[in-house]
Design brief:
Order of helices and strands: HHHHHHHH
Distance between the termini: 58 Å
Helix content: over 70%
Length: 126
């Protein structure tokens, strides 16, 4: 019985250490892959979202019955806190974020250019 409890405690501690290091892992992986611009933004967004699911932020938001903008805000803060606050200080580049959105929508050519231009202008307004 004591052995089982010791193993359970050890696995919990190792899991907690892994979650704290996840944000650094996302940045490290992006650097290893030599990602930049929209590709890096998109990768980090997905990687950090996956980390949010792993660190319990999604479960906490569901428990609090959050939805929409309140859930988005809560998840952003929860993930930043879990990453040690580094994500809260970094401000994303609006042009890169807009380019990532255009890529998600599979826009190309003039449609992509127009979308990115309007999206960037809207981001600058507020």
């Amino acid at each position: 019985m004591k052995k089982s409890l010791s193993l359970l405690a050890l696995s919990f501690l190792l899991g907690a250490a892994h979650l704290g290091a996840h944000a650094a892992t996302c940045d490290d992986t992006a650097a290893e892959k030599k990602l930049a611009g929209a590709a890096k933004t998109s990768f980090l967004k997905k990687c950090n979202a996956d980390a949010g699911a792993a660190n319990g932020c999604d479960a906490k938001a569901t428990e609090k019955k959050l939805a929409g903008a309140a859930k988005t805000s809560f998840l952003k803060k929860c993930n930043a806190d879990a990453a040690g606050g580094a994500a809260a200080e970094a401000k994303p580049d609006p042009a890169a974020a807009c380019a990532a959105q255009a890529a998600e929508k599979k826009l190309a050519g003039a449609a992509k250019t127009s979308f990115v231009k309007k999206c960037t202008a809207d981001a600058a307004k507020g």
